[in-house]
Design goal:
With 390 residues, the protein is of the alpha+beta class. It has 10 helices and 19 strands. The chain has 3 domains: 107 residues, no CATH class; 77 residues, Sandwich (Immunoglobulin-like); 173 residues, Dockerin domain (Type 1 dockerin domain, Orthogonal Bundle).
Length: 390
């Protein structure tokens, strides 16, 4: 075969099957485009570069030397002149010598650019469906997906599975295992990667959490007065649909404001995973408001006349320094006076503009300090507390 490109050499494609082929197709001498050639050629001769089971013109052009295409389910072939590096071609067990000037080369020239090869057409996967489009899991949980590839007579219906974020979940042969809270996708692909299907998977935390409140030791603290049930739920990192708020009597609360002593429950798939008591800073008696009754309860606790416990004790720690002291008593009293909200941190009595209230607090603190000093040292007065006493 001459080395110069002869785009007309073997330009005729003849398709032979058990049923025969239309004569118009058998007689054609037109150039075949790459997409049609790709649909007709199927070989496993080690030159299928992209591994799609189709031998394209571009892939044929990389071949040099001898090329064995015998028994490779070849359905049709044309444009042999693209194989400029091929010196021998084996088609259906018959070797052809394509060296320029060889007898076979001259024979091919005499065949009027036509060659006949018998074979079958490759059937690719064109559709892929998953058993689910969305799913929820908890860390450590597993779920098995099934994928259906079609059509049923596709040559290779193998499915490849991947997780787009293996820190959230892993997948092997359709079995998904949740690793940590987060959201990602499980993707199933046909072997050639041309068809895909995906499922969104949410791995939910099994513990209550918040970027606004402090969730620790079975309590949710740092909750401000007048916080609504909806605001409390929205302040948690967990899905609102998984949160239930109960009052002290165990009745579900969907509206209104929260108060100290309420309970927040986290339920996933019908299983309760976590509970936490609500602590509204300063709401010692659990009525949802910060009033004189609350700082009176703190005073009685400091004087060891009526000890606070549980969520009430935590609510009494208004400045959230980890202990109930005179500073908390002042914080609640100043908050009631509307001068300095508890949520803003420890109050400074010297900042109180009303001289009568300021004097009252100074005298009350001084008197309370003397009383606490007689309680055998069981009430701590820290330096910040004493600095506010006149």
């Amino acid at each position: 075969m001459r080395k110069k490109f002869r785009y007309a050499v073997l330009a005729c494609l003849v398709l032979v099957s058990a049923l025969g082929v239309p004569s118009a197709l058998a007689d054609t001498t037109a150039e075949m485009d790459d997409s049609l050639l790709a649909a007709l050629l199927r070989v496993d001769a080690g030159i299928d570069v992209d591994g799609d089971g189709v031998l394209t013109i571009e892939e044929l052009g990389r071949v040099s030397g001898a090329l064995d295409l015998s028994h490779q389910n070849i359905y049709g072939i044309k444009g042999i002149e693209y194989l400029t590096g091929v010196t021998e071609l084996n088609v259906d067990g018959n070797w052809l010598d394509l060296s320029e000037g060889s007898p076979d080369d001259r024979l091919l020239d005499s065949l009027a650019d036509c060659v006949v090869i018998r074979g079958t057409q490759r059937i690719p996967v064109t559709e892929l469906t998953l058993s689910a489009k969305a799913a929820e899991l908890v860390p450590g949980g597993t779920l098995t997906f099934t994928a259906t590839a079609g059509p049923a007579d596709a040559d290779d219906r193998t499915v490849v599975w991947i997780s787009e974020d293996t820190t959230v979940l892993t997948v092997k042969d359709g079995v998904v295992r949740a690793v940590s809270p987060g959201t990602t996708r499980v993707v199933a692909s046909a072997q050639d990667g041309r068809v895909q299907a995906a499922c969104n998977v949410v791995v939910k935390a099994t513990r209550l959490g918040s970027d606004i409140y402090t969730v620790s030791g079975g309590t949710i603290s740092g909750v401000a007065e007048n916080t609504t049930v909806q605001e409390l739920a929205q302040g948690l990192v967990n899905s609102i649909s998984d949160i239930t708020v109960y009052d002290e009597g165990g009745i579900i609360c969907e509206n209104g404001t929260v108060s100290t002593g309420m309970t927040v429950s986290l339920t996933l798939g019908g299983t309760v995973y976590d509970n936490a008591a609500v602590v509204v800073s300063g709401d010692v008696n659990g009525d949802g408001s910060i009033t004189v009754s609350d700082y009176t309860s703190v005073r009685l606790h400091l004087l060891e006349l009526k000890a606070l416990e549980g969520s009430a004790l935590q609510a009494a720690d208004a400045n959230e320094d980890g202990q109930v002291t005179i500073g908390d008593y002042v914080a609640i009293r100043v908050h009631i006076a509307g001068i300095d909200a508890i949520i803003n941190g420890p109050p400074d009595v010297s900042r109180i503009p009303d001289a009568r209230i300021r004097k009252f607090l100074e005298l009350a603190l001084a008197q309370l300090g003397k009383m606490c000093g007689a309680t055998r040292g069981r009430i701590r007065l820290t330096a910040p507390d004493l600095s506010t006493i006149a």
